[in-house]
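Support reply, case 0932

Customer input (verbatim):
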Amino acid sequence: MQSLQPSPAHLTEITGSTKFFLKTLKEALVQAKLPGQIFVGGSFAKGTLLVKEKYDVDLFIRFKEVTPLSIDRLEKVLLSIAPQATRVHGSRDYFQIPASDHLIFEVIPVKQITKPQAMENVTDLSYFHVAYVTKHMTQKLAHEIALAKAFCTSAGIYGAESYIQGFSGYALECLLIHYRTFRKMLQKLLSVEKQLCIDPAKHYRSSGDLLRTMSESRRAGPLIIVDPTWKERNVAAALSYESFSLFQKRAKAYLARPHDQFFEEETFDLKRVQKEVTQKKGMLFTLSLETDKQAGDLAGTKLRKFHLFVCELLKERFTLIKPLFRYERGQTSVSYYILKTKQTVQEGPLLSMTKHAHAFKKMHPSVFVKKGRYYRTLPPTTPQAYVQEKVRKELLAQMDITRMHVD
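Our regenerated output:
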């Protein structure tokens, strides 16, 4: 297996670029008289960076108070040293600065806090997360974490974004610090049936105490990983049952027959999808969507929500074999649905409801009777025609979809 972590040469390049940018940024903050402490966070700071085509380095600016004014002032500072900087809107705005074709800096304003409970945004906890992970980090553990990240990336379930609903990097780091090896982590999570509670720092006396104390919204998923730095937070809150089920399926397959392919990110291959359609004697329906929401978590969430809505819509008239959602951080997505036709029966009125029954039979001559009620078999349709019939412009606007194309 090829190394899952960046080569020493890549790390040297990233480190050099980061040091140069940090020096420039510090000088610009001083010149603008904008008080803020900079610290490097994320996977790069923790030593758990996964090898990939484009690396991102998180740079946190700690302010005593994070206000719209301080973020606006930070934006001016960044634009003065990096005109290519872009502002990303979210629960708290942050900034992206492409440093090269292979490196991007994310500059994130956070509140300078001494206790986790004083946090106003989850990013405020990043300082504590870096300290916790680096305290436990060893070369062997970094390798085990890289295995876990690559495994989840390959399955498309790496990331806490709403359109992914998978494992965050910090969640995997906490799991590996707890279980020590990737293989043991798979074995333990594979045995989970409904829900597993993990409290690495032993904040609670028992799982019962945890469930009584933690808010319901934070303990709704398949995994509860109590944040070692703050007892009220579930590190795995973003993980959906759907993503966890896929993780368990792949974990079972890997443990039965380990193979390097489980750590390789699959590139989308339309020919492979079409081959699967042929093998299952189905049909392929393609849906292209566009939103005007900001690229990233916001756009991805809107597009995925509409994709799931269409899944349920198609189930009314077709057998849905497999849905595929393709989104790559822009404002567009493409969904592929492998379908089979199915006979759909519409329920009519009871025969005892004479007036309505007569009208139903007159409108639909080919009806049949079952248990004292009229029914009719709906005429066949295509997924293209059905989706276009059901999805009106008003619905697209309500769901923040600016363009829909079916094929």
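We compared this against your earlier run and they match. Two observations from our side: The first strand starts at residue 37 and ends at 41. The chain is about 40% helix and 20% strand. Please reopen the case if you see a mismatch on your end.
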